From TrEMBL:
This is Oligogalacturonate-specific porin KdgM. It comes from the Bacteria. GO terms for molecular function: porin activity. It comes from Marinomonas spartinae. One of its GO terms (cellular component) is cell outer membrane. The lineage of its organism: Bacteria, Pseudomonadati, Pseudomonadota, Gammaproteobacteria, Oceanospirillales. The keyword Signal applies.
Length: 232
C-alpha cells in the first residue's frame, strides 16, 4: 500500500515538473477550517497550475492537530499532523461565450482509506458579473476492512461580483449507499462565501457552511473557513 502511494506521488511530481514550463497561471491557497460542534481544526494548503489549453492540475495537503489526552479535538495550530493528501485534474471546455463544461477527477489519500471523485461541471454567465453552475460528482471511498461507500453529490451554485467583492452561495445534495445523516441515505449542505480582491494577485476570503455532524443523528453544525488565494 505504501509503495503504491509513493508511486502515485512520484508520478504526480513528474507531471507537475513536465507541465510547469507551460503554465499560464499558478496559484497557492491556504485555508483554516473550524467546526463548532466537533471542535475540529483543519489546515489545508493547495498549489495549482492552470494552462492555456484549459487543463488544471492541483495538489493539496491537509493537517489536523492531534487529539488531546482526554479525547477532545486538538487545539488550533498545535501539534499538527498530516491528515489528507489530494491530487486533482480538470479540463475546461469553452462551449461558447457564456457556457463552460468541466470534467474532472480527484484522488484523495487518508490514513486508512482512499477516495476517488470523478465529476462534471456546467457553468454559465448570466451577466458579466453573475454566474451559475451545476456539478455532479461521484465519491467512492475505499476504506480498509469496510464496504465501499458510494455517494452521489450535486452542487448548485451562484456567484455575484460587486466591484472587488465576490459573493457566492452553494447548495449541495448527497445520496449514498450508506446512511449519511439522521439514519438516512440523504444529506445536504449550505455554504456562503465572500472573497475580496485586495490586489491583482492576493484575495482573502471567508466561508460559512451548515453541515451534518453524524449519520446517526439529526444534529447539524457550522463550519467556519478563512483563507486566501495567491497568484504566483
Amino acid at each position: 500500500m505504501k509503495q503504491r502511494h509513493l508511486r502515485l506521488n512520484i508520478l504526480f511530481a513528474a507531471c507537475a515538473i513536465g507541465f510547469i514550463q507551460h503554465a499560464s497561471a499558478t496559484e497557492l491557497s491556504y485555508e483554516h477550517q473550524y467546526e463548532d460542534v466537533s471542535k475540529d481544526h483543519v489546515d489545508e494548503i493547495e498549489l495549482s497550475h492552470k494552462f492555456d489549453s484549459g487543463f488544471k492540475l492541483a495538489g493539496a495537503l491537509k493537517f489536523k492537530p492531534h487529539e488531546q489526552a482526554n479525547g477532545d479535538s486538538g487545539k488550533a495550530f498545535h501539534d499538527d499532523r498530516w491528515h489528507e493528501s489530494k491530487i486533482s485534474g480538470s479540463y475546461t471546455i469553452q462551449l461558447n461565450n457564456d457556457w463552460q463544461l468541466t470534467p474532472g477527477f480527484s484522488w484523495v489519500r487518508k490514513q486508512n482509506e482512499y477516495k476517488y471523485k470523478p465529476s462534471l461541471k456546467l457553468k454559465t454567465a448570466i451577466t458579466d458579473d453573475t454566474h451559475a453552475s451545476i456539478r455532479y460528482r461521484k465519491e467512492i471511498t475505499d476504506a480498509s476492512g469496510k464496504k465501499n461507500k458510494k455517494v452521489d453529490r450535486i452542487d448548485l451554485g451562484v456567484s455575484q461580483k460587486i466591484e472587488k467583492v465576490t459573493l457566492g452561495y452553494t447548495y449541495t445534495y448527497y445520496h449514498g449507499n450508506q446512511n449519511l445523516f439522521d439514519k438516512k441515505r440523504n444529506d445536504y449542505q449550505h455554504e456562503i462565501e465572500a472573497a475580496y480582491k485586495l490586489t491583482k494577485t492576493f484575495s482573502p476570503y471567508i466561508a460559512v457552511k451548515n453541515e451534518s455532524v453524524s449519520s446517526k443523528t439529526d444534529q447539524r453544525q457550522t463550519e467556519f473557513d478563512i483563507g486566501f488565494a495567491l497568484k504566483i
